[in-house]
Description:
This protein is α+β, with helices and mostly antiparallel strands. It has 6 helices and 17 strands.
Amino acid sequence: MFFKKKRFxxxxxxxxxxxxxxFFCLNPLKAMEQPPITFQFQFAKxxxxxxxKYQDVHIRSVLGEEFRQEKNRIVLKIxxxxxDFVLMSGNFYTYQRFPGKSExxxxxSEYQSEFRFYYNGRYEIxxxxxxxxxxxxxxxxxxxxxxxxxxxAEQILHVGRFLFPLHHSVVYRYKGMAKLPDEAYLLxxxxxxxxxxxxxxxxxxxxxxxxxxxSPVRRIQASSESSLWLNQKAGxxxxxxxxxxxxxxxxxxxxxxxxxxxxxxxxxxxxxxRNLDTIIDNARKKIPVSPDINVKxxxxxxxxxxxxxxxxxxxxxxxxxxxxxxxxxxEYFKGYPDREIRIFGHTDNVGGxxxxxxxxxxxxxxxxxxxxxxxxxxxxLSYKGFGASQPKVSNQTLEGRKxxxxxxxxxxxx
Length: 414
């Protein structure tokens, strides 16, 4: 009797498992289907949209090989919202470092732009704008994401004085919900580790002959593969990683090969423009303002100037009083952890231009390293030396030369 009850209990369960197995064997697509998800870019007029890109660049040519690291910071603001798109203004900042030569990023250049950004990620931009140089990537259909889709895109390749527009198609594949790779949390909060986000893989190939006979490039070939994770709640991407290779075939002297490994993070932060006066007042209260330390409003944020008295004559070694002042400035900057800090060195015109350039770079770097010792993350910092090329006042007088010997620290609020 006990045996019969036991057999009666297990038989229906076994039949159920058999039926489920047969169902999915006969319907394999059911087993592979991902639950539908939707994604749409979301924008608020008082927010800033920031993209941080770090890329390893390896270049090969007949002249040899070069390895460098680049950082691009993109700050986007909403000018106007429409039903189908937003009008954006963008500031694009570029930085470089050469491992083994410069360990910290050196500020290189700034570009400004304005363009339409549609809610599916498509761009509309005037032909005379250089940035953004990669356009309409990613493009994400509105509504439920299909498993595969294809969209047009454009890139502007800048080689010397020549611009090469490259129109191509991008193939996208929705891969389902997946964890972010560990390296994403270098900039993302650790508490989000392990969460599942929608993952999209996409790729493209380019093969284009250059029609301009004057250009040094006769043909461009490229291939690229990317993985992207979406932040559905914020309405922006969270992180992506890209591997790309470009071949530029020259009319003379062979070819140039560019290899890129690019890591990108995406953030929303509140605009501080309306509160800038309050931020300036707060800085003046917390930072020891003196004839040699000045705080003022800048078009891009808060500017703090350190006079040359903070350094011994012809030296980039900080004096003790300078170190103490920088400790307090660092504490102030910690109150704005998502803002970039740039450090610029300047000299007077006494001495040779090469010497002044080197001294301005070394002094800016000394200030940057002091901030790092006081807990400011390296990723927030960059530096550049200008030598005597940007005087505040005339160098004709002793007082004028004293004012021109300075280090300017700029915290970007917009």
